[in-house]
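Subject: sequence -> structure tokens, single chain

Hey, anyone have a minute? Need the predicted structure for the following. Not urgent.
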Amino acid sequence: MYVRKLPLIIGFPLVLGACATAIPSAYTDPKAGFANVASQITPALGKRTVFAETQAENEAVKREVRAMVQGKTISADTAVQVALLNNKGLQASYANVGLSAAEAWQQSTPENPIVSIGVLGIGAPELGAYRAIEGLIRANLLDATTRKQRRAIADASFRQAQLTAVNDTLTLANQTRQAWVNAVSAFEVVGYLKRAKATSDAGSELSRKLGETGALNKAAQAREQAFNAELAGQLAKARLDATTAKEELTRLMGLWGADVNYYVPDALPGLPRSVGGVANVEAKALRNRVDLRVAKLGLEAQAKAFGLTDQTRIVSDLEIVAGAELEREAEGGDIEKEITPQVELEFAIPIYDSGKARMRKAELSYLQAANVLAERAVNVRSEARGAERAYHASYKIARHYRDVLVPLRKTVENEALLSYNGMITNTFELLTDVREKLGAELEAADAKRAFFMAQADLTAAIYGGGAGSGGGGSEGATLAAGDGAGH
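Reply:
Had a minute. Here:
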């Protein structure tokens, strides 16, 4: 009985599934897509990244990170490398690549057929406990005919997820580099203020003693003490800013526990001798920006989705049902068996929904993606031009403070010290010159910080990952650890 039914019920879906294509290993690999992500990171950043899935892999990463940071003064390059290995948000982005691969894998496989078996007349003793058995199998014909389009859409999404992961990596690298610059710059300011506070303490103590002798009036005493108090407040705030900036760096590197016991240099490295221009910066950005490539894939996916919608506009649900019915009849004490094949075709009649609304939505989605891509291209050009101008301008400003203003203030201070030793200048005039020199040094430190931030922004404008797209890059990799014990 059942042997005669199997060719019809089971053989039918096998025929429908014969058009199924082989599933690419890129979808089924445990780290699907990550190799492509990693291959794009190294040229842009000169760093490596990992996708740690197992406990053993995570433990290996922890040991490597601990060896790089614990008890050490880290450079910008080290900070970026630690972040790429240890930031859990980045690991989540890499996992999303795997999810996208799994979706493409699923879209590459035929839809499972639905089998239904019914028994009629259960318990009729004269018919041997049943009257009829009906077996049906249901398969979606549109699944087979549209699988190629759906797989193409899923593949575009898979490639888009890979580029998004690349952009997330660049973003993290840029944020980490800039956090390192901010932290080191903050500690450099603390150093300047500590030296100024020591000088101010001496001046405040001198004014107090002169006041006791009557050689200095109360207004002059109050002036010196007020400046000393203001400087104490500025120093306390600078220390807080430095601690906060270092904590931001720690967060981006994904550190906690004993691993937070690391240091950053006392000061940023010196300015380079010169900075060169970037030839064809707009073209270079258009060629390398990862977020622009993501937008292009978005447009490609919308185009493929539009084709799928057009194909299913009229008939959105087409199913074929096949099976057989085994019926038993009792006549004159004899039981007769009869097998009846069944084939049904089910589809929705487009009386109310003709598919025009879905086509309109698909058209507008494609138009939306095209405009997003066009806007991104305009923005990329603008960001590249602006970043290059800011890079060169900030370098000139930083050099001006370093080569002109600070040396002039040092000259004034040295001359004032000579005059003081010759009893020409009084103590408080000398302290005034010291304060003005401090102001010039703080401005020079801020200008240097702005230059290194602009350097990172220029890399982000070319490769992606900055404020306009999300990430950093290699041209900011020239930063190295400064001198000093660190913090």
